[in-house]
Amino acid sequence: MIELRAATELDREAMTDFVAGLSPDTSWLRFASGIGRPTRALVTSLLRRDATHGAWIAVRDGDIVAHTSWSLLADGVTAELAAVVSDSWRRSGLGRLLGRLAADEAAENGAQGLRLELLPSNLAARGLLLHLWPHAAGHDGGGLLVYDVPLRRTAGAG
Ligand SMILES: CC(C)(COP(=O)(O)OP(=O)(O)OC[C@H]1O[C@@H](n2cnc3c(N)ncnc32)[C@H](O)[C@@H]1OP(=O)(O)O)[C@@H](O)C(=O)NCCC(=O)NCCS
User: Would the pTM of this model clear 0.85, i.e. be above it?
Assistant: First the structure.
């Protein structure tokens, strides 16, 4: 069974293993680099939960298989959202479910909109984005597609 829950500091080792185990392509799409073994600082940022950050995970048999996070930008009303699902769990609905949890929590913490910056070639992420927010429109942001999505709580939708 898969457990979906907020990340905690106790997940540090599992998060380290999760990031280290991502395929190079997935690591590139999420972190814009081939990460390998993540630094302690990176894992800390992926687990961070406070008034301006949130982190959600999917856990199977003690292993993290997916992660989403949000962080409030300096304007205090826009949250940047990121998601990554291990290759073997793609297309199982985890990105959608964790994406909603992260977006709802960002809204509860004052976010009025989401920002996602995606490589134009990232069809999976663009598909997930449009699945969750069908009216989202992207604009060119220096080689990246930048989506600004007005945020309402999505719990119970779809
Ligand atoms: C993007 C990503 C998080 C999607 O996660 P996922 O768990 O596979 O997505 P879901 O199973 O929840 O898919 C929900 C919907 O999104 C859309 N979608 C997901 N993957 C898609 C793909 N490869 N192509 C087109 N649409 C896709 C579909 O509408 C899908 O619904 P459906 O399966 O009923 O058709 C995952 O592909 C991933 O980790 N990619 C690498 C990291 C990355 O690019 N992150 C985004 C930048 S931070």
Answer: yes
